[in-house]
Amino acid sequence: MNFRFAIISDPHIAVPHTISDHPNRFHWVEISIPVIEKVLSDLEQLNLDFVLLPGDLTQDGEPDNHRWLQQRLASLPFPVYVIPGNHDIPTIHSTEQTIGFDDFPSYYRQFGYDHTDKLYYTQEIFPGVQLIGLNSTQFNSNGKQLGCLDEVQLSWLEHLLPQLKDQLVLVMIHHNVIEHLPGQTHHELGKRYMLENARLLLKILQDGGCQLIFTGHLHVQDVAYNQGIYEITTGSLVSYPHPYRIIEIEGKTKDKLTVNITSHRVESVSGYDNLATISRQLLGDRSFPFMMKLLTASPLKVPIVQAEELAPLLRDFWADIAAGDGFFDFPEFPPSVRHYFRQFSAIKSDGTPALIDNQAILYL
User: Fold this and answer.
1) Which one, of 291, 292, 286, lies nearest residue 305 by Cα?
2) Across the strands, what pairs with 82?
3) What is the pLDDT of residues 210-250, one digit of tens each?
4) CA angle at residue 54 from 50 to 58, to 5 degrees?
5) Can you give the pTM of this predicted structure?
């Protein structure tokens, strides 16, 4: 069992006439086309078996953006599998500006949805390897968007997994199932990126012998582990550091495999020779309101006056989180605040580095 694939996450495709202005947005849709073209051009030179795109394919579900991506993916020399993210189906019913919930599969028949009108699916990639694409974008009775799995999908998954017990199962879902940030499940700013019923899904996957989950949504490079399962989340292609991943899986049986992760970055595209510098600067320029929320929210609850003094020192904090494998120490901060931010560092419990977010070999 030897194969190689790529992951491109949260490309937020926006063809020029669809681009809307959001001055406080952390991701940079204006470069979505040249950046993905650069990555796809590079991937076409590799001997890949397939590519995964775990959601937020488009800026905000615009039909023209879905059509552009559909046509571009169809021209590639390898299979591509996609799932929706929260930006891909922002409304349950279609409008002039966005596709609706039931429209998504029809755009991506060649990319996982050839045998279903549901927004989730399973595909045998090749003998012994099965992909499960889940849909974590739901709507309540009031039309509010939720990040969870519905009961029908969970039941389908519970019945499916026993049939795949002898295969390597790759699970792709947009929202995070395992925490990638300290206290993410309950934090005011972090919980929106977590699947609301993550604990239930994790139990189903553990019972089914799954060991690998691939997610996006959070726009960071991170590898997390919980009770036998690795979750590999990949940063957004339109946000610093503009990453994508190559994954190589090797081994004789599904229980004795190595997973070799290498991460790559788009350093420049036409018109942006210093893309990384510019995009890191953009994150820093827009960081102050976010850092104020982080400092004043639970569990820190820093007084506003003090938070206004500390926030500028955190200008590059989120950029360093997004890059993965970061180390954080702010000795000028009050002890409790300093301790809080040190928790985000890529270190083990014994204090040694744990650099697995970008380049790593995992053993299953």
Assistant:
1) 292
2) 53
3) 999 999 999 999 999 998 999 999 999 999 999 999 999 99
4) 110
5) 0.96
